[in-house]
Design a protein that fits this description.
Helices cover 22% and strands 44% of the residues. By secondary structure, it is of the alpha+beta class. Strand 6 (67-71) and strand 7 form a beta hairpin.
Amino acid sequence: MRAAEDEMTVEGYAAVFDAPATLYSYEGVDYKEAIDRGAFIAAEMQDVVMNYNHGGKPVARTKNHTLELTVDGRGLKVRADLSGTEEGRRLYEEIKGGYIDKMSFAFVVSEDTYDRDTHTRRILGIKRLYDVAAVDMPAYDATHISARSYFDAEAVKAERAEARARKIRRIKLMMEVIR
């Protein structure tokens, strides 16, 4: 399959729940961190940007609807249209080519715990999410990002159109019942 020339969409996970990452090692001890399934429940995520390695110009943004963030059973899912900026188009090509295939996120913690036995910090709550980033060296190796194929993008468009049509039919039906 090939990627669409006019649709430069990428998808991935910037955070994966319950997948401990070793943040650093000291004197033979691995210090880890894991994201709890409920960490994003109260997180402020109204204006989040996407960029490369947490720096440079934004390539997508929630405020202009080029960046979509959803929390599902696996983690923080990212879907971004990178076609709007030159930096975004370059990043898309690097993701599509497999040069960049991991993600990260920048955030402020509202609540956490630490297990001295396992040397693991567990993030229970995130106060504010600042950015999601395609990265070359992630803290969490379980993350990923990939370019969507043209056929995948077309299938999603068709599914969304059908869902909208079902919703419209339901509303019309409800309006007839009310009369």
